[in-house]
Amino acid sequence: MAQLDTREKLAILADAAKYDASCASSGTAKRNSRDGKGLGSTEGMGICHAYAPDGRCISLLKILLTNSCIFDCHYCINRKSSNVRRARFTAQEVVNLTLSFYRRNYIEGLFLSSGIIGSSNYTMEQMVEVARSLREDHNFRGYIHLKTIPDADPELVHQAGLHADRLSINVELPTAGGLKRLAPEKDGARIEGAMAANRTAIVDNKDAVKRYKSAPRFAPAGQSTQMIVGADAATDGDIVTKASTLYDRFGLRRVYYSAFSPIPDASAVLPLQRPPLMREHRLYQSDWLMRFYEFTPQEVVAAADDATGMLPLDIDPKLAWALKFRGSFPVDVNRAPRELLLRVPGLGVKAVNGILTSRRWRKLRLDDVARLTVSIAKLRPFIVTEDWRPVVLADRAEIRPIVAPKKQQLELFAA
Prior knowledge:
Layout: H1 6-16, E1 60-64, H2 91-103, E2 109-113, H3 120-137, E3 143-147, H4 154-163, E4 166-168, H5 176-182, H6 188-211, E5 223-229, H7 236-250, E6 254-259, H8 277-292, H9 297-302, H10 317-324, E7 331-332, H11 338-341, H12 349-358, H13 366-370, E8 383-384, H14 391-395, H15 400-403
Parallel strand pairs: 1-2, 2-3, 3-4, 4-5, 5-6, 7-8
């Protein structure tokens, strides 16, 4: 590997890290350095983690320790057989970069991942050393997210959790068949075993912290994962079902979705075109329905096309479910329970909470609901109020053209 200076390494390894979406930063324990003894702080809110080549808008230093890798996963641009420029940081270089960038007010924390070099244990040791040095040698109190390696020794992963705010392990693909075909060197059972161990450690640590104030925290922001969308034949139904299973079994804070992007010198087993980015967006919306709108995975899957298993791209999953199960509507906003109101297209959680509070004092009219939502037009076919009942709309055989978003021609030079 040719000798590169730090700036050249940063350009290569920050660009290589852009494919990893699972770097949210919310939910960790609050820390600050007002006592003058440490460096950095965390807040309960999320930290923006956008990367720009010219250095703007970077609040998490998001890099790889190295983009060299002994694995040859077909979908990965950093795979062993890929013809890309390679670089590698030492643990001390990452520590120095993090501290230097923080002191210049460029970042608020570090997201560190890596290709596998030498062995899984050696790579994990280097990543743990970065976090350990920041915390112990420099008393860094900012946010740290480590992408852990499931093949590494469990004690190394445990050490990572003692220094990092959040851990993440990528399940990579939603089906076991897809993982075996596209990443034969990775073991789905081993990945899930590592996630299970992290969950146990997180739960045990929460109990220990309640009992002993001096107990060290373990990954206080929890763990997350990421799935690649469109690299294999998995349907949206498969992906939603897998995500639900991961949430239930491993207590994940988030499941992230990353649309497959064709890479140079791609393997013949990969698709030639990337999936629509809207598909990734619809999967995030379906994830939101399960996490905040009390939809079951079966309900979200039911919104997909019966023949293809895919969610529609032109309308959101909640509207697709409502159109498919019109027998559940219209919903009387003055009488319906919370779970039914949450299924009304156009009503968000905040609006539903407002309806539940307001109707305790008086009967709600259409104008009252309109004040709680962005657009009442989308709601009309699905609700009943004191002065509104969608008799004509409910009798129409096809109401999708009425409620679906209107197509608009974008303007190149629009303000």
